[in-house]
Structures are given as structure tokens and as C-alpha cells.
Design a protein that fits this description.
Rossmann fold; 2 domains; six-stranded parallel β-sheet; about 35% helix
């Protein structure tokens, strides 16, 4: 990726200014192509939650609409593909994209021709594409129905996908960190026949916000990390410590840091193998003049509630005086206030991972306090997908955030400073 910058102006995305960094998006986008009369294969992220065959949250489908509408308005023949679920036991109706086709039809206000064939590509798909007119939509079946051919980036499947189209658009940020056939492999065969590979508006927006936040933030820049395990976020902690001014650590992973400071953490989560790493990071922060903020109190429980959202007895303890027989499951009120104060002075905030077991209403107060602080600040607030996005949505603060990433895993890898295969595979400008 080159160091040239791109300003993004779509879908209420502010211009990102110059990004003199390796993460700048020097990639062709849907605005660089003419889709008229062309067959355009768009990789979307339609991995939506289903309950009894009904979609419970259509955020990801809505996020794909600007790109789809742009290509339809241009007179493109739009072929959509996506995975859904993990598909562990082979193709099955429970993980079919049929509910997505139905919802997409409602949102677009036009017919979506769904090819239900479990083979994804093949005769039925070829025929549906051959019969397409300009401005029509075809949706292929779940790409993971091809099993390892998709997930191991199989040449054959990549070529079959490419055979259906003249142009390829990657707009699936949530899958862009995986080098799968429908994300990365297909681009090689599109290029081989002289076609273009570009990114869609959603990808553009994600990279603008996340890339800019990490590489060129308006300061003070505060990063908030939560979630259960330190091990999942080792590289993120290290990378963000170099970039941000203050790093706030909450959630289950905070207790490994607290134990590394020599305190009793009772039955709280702890990655014992990572204690030295936590000490290293605290020493590194000190040396660099950065702040690491850790909880000063915790909401503790004796026993885990069953079910997870059932009633639970809690006790707030200072971090320096945690009982040996209790488990910390949320940040306490003093920590929540301290974290909120740090957010108030920030100009850029990136948040990834909840502050406690937010699935339980009693243990969600810390996560709620952080979400509320982010909703009330004037800073650019970026939510790194996954549980944090679910928490913000659940709590009704979604419209108060500058950007909510659609990809938990992808945004984490981005925050680690990794290149994402789905981005790398697009054509350079």
C-alpha cells in the first residue's frame, strides 16, 4: 500500500484528511469503475444473527445498501455473495441465505433473485447470471457451503466465482481479515481476464475511520480495551500503546494486569502466563510517558448466575482489598467515573471489548457507563465491532457514535497494525 491519501465523502463519512501512513487507502473504489452493463460480483457481509429462520438484527444488510444501490443506479448487473455462520456440518437450510434475500428485497424495494443451489456457483448460478438485465440483483448461496474450498482459498472455487463476473467489489469488512476464496482468491482470476477489483463504500468508510484513528488521530487519543482475555489482545495492547495517549483496560483482562501489580484478585479471570507481559507493558507505558488506567474497584460475585442474565448478588470491593473467594465481573463505580473522565478530555476514542459480563443486567453497569461517556463526548468515537458494538446497540447509543465497525475480528487485526487480505487484494489506484 502506498502512502497517498484519499478523502472519503460518502454516506456521511467526513473527509479523512491526509493519511501519510501505510494504512492509507490507496485502493480503487466503486467510484473508480463504470458498472454499466457489467456483471459485478460484490462480496458482502450478510453474516446476520438468525432466530427460528428470522433475522434478529439487519445492521449488516443495511450497511451494504449504499454500494449495492450505487452499482444498480449505474446499470450494473449485481451479483451478491456472502457467508453466514460457521457451517460446521455441511450445507443446511438453517444457514441458507434465503432469509437475507427476503430482507434485502424489502430494503431495496426490488426483486432479488436468490440462487438456492448449495453448490453456490454452477449451473443454476450461471443461468441466473446469463439472464440478468441491467439494474437486477442475484444473490448466491452461502459461500461456506463450499467448505474448505472457501476457507482455504481454493483455486477452483475462486475461478468459478470470477467466471460469473467482469468486476469484483469487496465490501465485507467483517470478513476482510480472512484470505478466503470469495474475499481474496477471486481477485486473481478477475485480474487475469482484465477485470477490476475494487472496494465498496463500507470498506472505504471502515478504513477511513479505523486507519485514521490509529495512524493519524486528533489528540488526546484514548483507547479502551475490555473483554475476557489478555492473550487475544497482546498485539493490540502493544500497538495501541505506541499510538494512543491513554490506554484504559477493563473487562476480564484487567485482572491479569492487577495481579501483575501484586494485588489479590480472588477467583477473577487471569492469564497467568501473561503476567510478565503485563509488567512489560506497564513499564513500557511509563517509559513512553503514556497512561495505562486500570480499574480501582470491582463489582464482585460469589457464584456465576445461571442463566447468565439471571439475578446475582454483588459486592463492590476496592482493587487493593479483593476477597480471595469472590470474582470480579465488572468495573466498580469509582473506575467507571475515572474512565468516563478520561473520555471527556479526549478528541479521539477507540473502544473494543466490554467492561464486564454485560450480558447480565446487574453486571452491565460499567459497560453502560463507558458507552454513556462516549455518547456524551464531542470526540470522534469509534467502536471496534463485536461485543462493544452489541453493547452500544443494546443500550440505544448507536446513533451517538461516530463510527461502529461492522467487523470485530477485522477491526482488532486493523488495530494491531496488520494488513487485511481483503484490502490488499483490491487494485491500487
Amino acid at each position: 500500500m502506498n502512502d497517498t491519501a484519499v478523502a472519503v465523502h460518502h454516506n456521511n463519512v467526513p473527509p479523512v484528511g491526509r493519511m501519510e501512513t501505510s494504512m492509507a487507502l490507496n485502493k480503487k473504489t466503486v467510484d473508480d469503475i463504470n458498472a454499466q452493463g457489467k456483471r459485478v460480483l460484490v462480496r458482502c457481509d450478510f453474516n446476520v444473527p438468525l432466530k427460528a429462520g428470522e433475522i434478529t438484527d439487519d445492521t449488516r444488510i443495511k450497511a451494504a445498501l449504499p454500494t449495492i444501490k450505487k452499482l444498480l443506479n449505474d446499470g450494473g448487473k449485481v451479483i451478491l455473495c456472502s457467508h453466514l455462520g460457521k457451517v460446521k456440518n455441511g450445507p443446511n437450510e438453517g444457514e441458507s441465505l434465503a432469509p437475507v434475500a427476503k430482507r434485502l428485497e424489502e430494503l431495496l424495494g426490488q426483486k432479488v433473485n436468490f440462487v438456492s443451489d448449495y453448490n453456490v456457483t454452477g449451473e443454476a448460478a450461471t443461468k441466473a447470471v446469463e439472464e440478468m438485465k441491467e439494474g437486477e440483483v442475484v444473490l448466491l448461496q452461502n459461500t461456506r457451503f463450499r467448505g474448505a474450498e472457501e476457507t482455504k482459498n481454493g483455486e477452483e472455487f475462486s475461478k468459478e466465482l470470477a467466471d460469473l463476473a467482469d468486476i469484483y467489489v469487496c465490501d465485507a469488512f467483517g470478513s476482510s481479515h480472512r484470505a478466503h476464496a470469495s474475499v481474496a482468491g477471486v481477485t486473481k482470476f478477475i485480474s487475469a481476464k482484465g477485470g477490476q477489483n475494487v472496494v465498496g463504500y463500507l470498506m472505504e468508510k471502515e478504513i477511513a475511520f479505523l486507519g485514521n484513528a490509529v495512524e493519524n488521530p486528533v489528540r488526546p487519543f484514548v483507547a479502551i480495551l475490555g473483554g475476557a482475555k489478555v492473550a487475544d489482545k497482546l498485539n493490540v495492547i502493544n500497538n495501541l500503546l505506541e499510538k494512543c495517549d491513554t490506554l484504559i483496560i477493563g473487562g476480564g483482562m484487567a485482572y491479569t494486569f492487577i495481579k501483575a501489580q501484586g494485588y489479590e484478585i480472588g477467583l477473577s479471570l487471569c492469564d497467568d502466563e501473561k503476567l510478565d507481559y503485563c509488567k512489560e507493558m506497564m513499564a513500557k507505558a511509563e517509559k513512553m510517558g503514556k497512561k495505562i488506567l486500570l480499574p480501582v474497584d470491582a463489582v464482585t460475585i460469589k457464584d456465576f448466575p445461571d442463566p447468565i442474565d439471571g439475578p446475582v448478588e454483588t459486592e463492590v470491593c476496592d482493587i487493593t482489598a479483593m476477597p480471595a473467594d469472590r470474582e470480579g465481573c465488572d468495573i466498580g463505580p469509582k473506575s467507571a467515573e475515572m474512565f468516563a473522565d478520561a473520555v471527556k478530555t479526549a478528541k479521539t476514542v477507540v473502544w473494543n471489548g466490554p467492561m464486564g459480563v454485560f450480558e447480565n443486567p446487574t453486571l452491565a453497569a460499567g459497560t453502560l457507563a463507558v458507552a454513556k461517556a462516549l455518547a456524551e463526548t464531542d470526540a470522534t468515537t469509534i467502536i471496534g465491532g463485536g461485543d462493544s458494538a452489541a453493547a452500544v446497540n443494546q443500550m440505544g447509543y448507536a446513533d451517538k457514535m461516530s463510527h461502529i465497525s461492522t467487523g470485530g475480528g477485522a477491526s482488532l487485526e486493523f488495530l494491531e497494525g496488520k494488513e487485511l487480505p481483503g484490502v490488499v487484494a483490491a487494485d491500487d489506484k
